[in-house]
Amino acid sequence: MGWLRNERGRWVGLGMLLLLALLLPVVLRESYLLSVLVLILANAQAGAAWNLAGGLAGQMSFGHAAFFGLGAYASAMLFNAHVPFGAMLVGGGLAAVFAMGIGYLCLRIRGFYFALATFALAEVMRIVARNWAGFTNGVLGIFLDAKTFQMLGGWLDLGKLSRVHYYFFLVALTALTVTATWMIRRRKLGYFFQALREDEHAALAVGINTTYYKILALAISGFFTALAGSFYALYTQYVSPDEVFGVFFSVKVIFISLVGGVGTIWGPVVGAVIMTVLEEWLRVYFPYSHEFIYGLLIVVVMLFMPTGIMGKLGEWTAGLEGRTTEGAVAGS
Amino acid sequence: MPLLEAENLTKSFGGVVAVQALSFSVGEGEILGLIGPNGAGKTTVFNLMTGFERPDKGVIRFRGMDIGRLRPHRVSQLGIMRTFQITKPFGHLTALENVMIAALAHGTDMAAARRAAAQTLGFVGMEAKAFDPARELPVEGQKMLELARALVVRPKVLLLDEVMGGLTASEINRVMERLREVRQTGVAMIIVEHVMRAIMAISDRVVVMNFGQKIAEGRPSEVAADPQVRTAYLGRTDRA
Lengths: 332, 240
Description:
- The complex is a heterodimer.
- Chain A is mostly helical.
- Chain A has helices at residues 2-5, 7-28, 32-56, 65-80, 87-105, 111-131, 133-136, 146-151, 163-185, 188-198, 200-205, 210-236, 241-244, 247-260, 267-285, 290-304, 308-316, 318-331; strands at residues 142-143, 238-239.
- Chain A has one domain (2-331): ABC transporter involved in vitamin B12 uptake, BtuC (Orthogonal Bundle), CATH 1.10.3470.
- The relative contact order of chain B is 0.18.
């Protein structure tokens, strides 16, 4: 695993991965496998978005569906109001502001209680979306207007976009989210997030404004999660309260991060590959009990690999890590 | 003018008065020992001085400025650094990263923070442990890490809560030597310590607390001879 710890080896590996991701659709074309790939990427991106707050900054949110749903609804509504462009960013911005509100409300709540509070807030959003029929069309949900698709028909017909196009877009979105994690993690901001996660009192004592960074972590994470929601709306062309504000999303993004490795850069990607493939495979071979087995496997992973797969990898290669970084510092 | 002073400080939790009408001060380059039996209120004093608790009454001044209402990170930014008696490392991060974070929080850039952290770890004798995860350090190591996190920002005032607990005699000597070096640069220190040998040797002045109140203040030798202090520590001996 030495090459993984080597800076240049890492870049080469990364480039090859990206190249592979871009070449795969050429081979796969429109197929079931491509749709699984889209699922994997969507899960990886959403997991990485959660990981920014939940993993890196230790803000264990159980209510990321609130951000996902906000992004999805904002996009759907703007789209139907014939404002397709920038809908994603507007959704993201809305969710970021909403996340700041949540962060402010939940400032004094930690750990388990924070998880409960965020869960409750997401449920409130779902119930509002179900019942505010005049604004959200209630439980019927919103279909994206085909007219808007055609309106753009001149030079870009969104209605004719194939799964391959969406796939490429997702590759970019996932790369963006993972890169954001990577950039944040190795900078000041990432260290402050981690300090917040490790010990809030110690973080305060060394001079970190924990209030500010807690809210910031949620805002960044909420923004990227809303992008996931926006993509979902455009991809499925339909949003409904239970689908986008439902607890399943909140739970899924946590498990993806946990299985892959909380707080790591590649954890959510690895987690998404494993969880998605597993889910699809179980669905085929255990059609009536796949959810049960899925849950059971998560319990097993948590019991034997509490730090996730990337965490385990890190432990195995820890010796190498120490030696290489030590050398780097001695040289500086 | 003293660097840091407390005037008439009072704090109670429910019905229990933890600190009562306590006044003291510490000047540049001065080492003030704060001693007293367990539960005397020493850690509460630290929490009050660093913004972790709000005083019910009284004033805390740093260079004449009232800091009693500031949040902990603002106090830290002023250069008033504390350590925790029950160590609070950033457990999953390395010792070096722990110290770097303190430097970063005080506005140092990444490269300089790394250098300063490595240097400070060396200063407290932890250079060999720089790449160990903090949670894997023994208690003594974590105490030195607390000290390094406070020292790396070049503090004006240091509040040390039992940093010598669990150290061997030679390690205590080395820490004391280091603290004297730091004092030479004008840093004021308030030290809570149960290692009497150390605190009596290093303090310029000692404040003795019992049940939240100051019962004695003076040079270490004076305080050690004070009958009230002897009673607080040893129990009443005159009736034996």
